[in-house]
From TrEMBL:
PROSITE patterns: HTH_CROC1. This is Transcriptional regulator with XRE-family HTH domain. Residues 22-55 form the HTH cro/C1-type domain. It holds the Pfam family DUF5753. SMART domains: HTH_XRE. SUPFAM superfamilies: lambda repressor-like DNA-binding domains (SSF47413). One of its GO terms (molecular function) is DNA binding. It comes from Allostreptomyces psammosilenae.
Amino acid sequence: MPQKPREVRPGQSARHFFGAEIRARRQAFGMSLEVLAHQLGYSRQQLSRIELGDRAVQPDLPARLDQVLRTGGTFQRLWKLVESEAHPDYARRFFKMEERATRIETYSSHAIHGLLQTEGYARAMMRAWAPEETDEAIQERLALRLERQKILTRPNAPVFWLILDEAVLRRPVGDASVMREQWARLVAAVGPRLTLQVLPFSAGAHGAMGGSMTVLTLPDGPDVAYMEGSHRGHLEETPATVARRRVTYDHLRALALPPAESVTLVRSLLRESYPSCLHTPT
């Protein structure tokens, strides 16, 4: 006798509602789990877990569901609820502003900025920050971060200025292969729209020692600032406060190594610690 499918729980979270809606639309379409999974490029088990809310929703799935089930954008709209639920309100507002920004100026005190993290580095950081999290929860957050990174590769990408504390360069995250990939990506990202500076230990005390900070220039103003600690951040929108944050950032920029010297330092550290990541085959 076939086993009865587990009941969906649409009221538990946005992700559970998303999964329940997949099952409802699939059944209304007269399509079996196996057939839909095949058309989406998933295994039966993977899709079943998504329907039950037990598996993270990948960013590319909603559009594929809308196409296969002919739902006219319903799942892409529901995805926005799933995406927003994964972040607290203050972070959601910041990410929306980040998408619109024409210039992003950021100081990273403890880790590479999320927009430049490789998948391996981001996963290692998320696991270190939340060792009690399930693999599914980590994967869901990771998918959102990788989707967010498209800001830097779109046609109208913002100007991005990154000041990186030397501590970030010196602290290993993950294994050697993770670090090789991360620093190689950082060096490769430097270009006309992305500037890197390293704030060396020799700079001494400064006004942003409490954590990381970002100042966003918005096309329709006013500018905003985002201050971030190890587990929490807060958005600042009062013009006078944002102006003070910008002064602090300008001081950091003056204390940091010039861009060319900064890239040279990163490359030298790569050669010393991870020589293979700068090797170019002949």
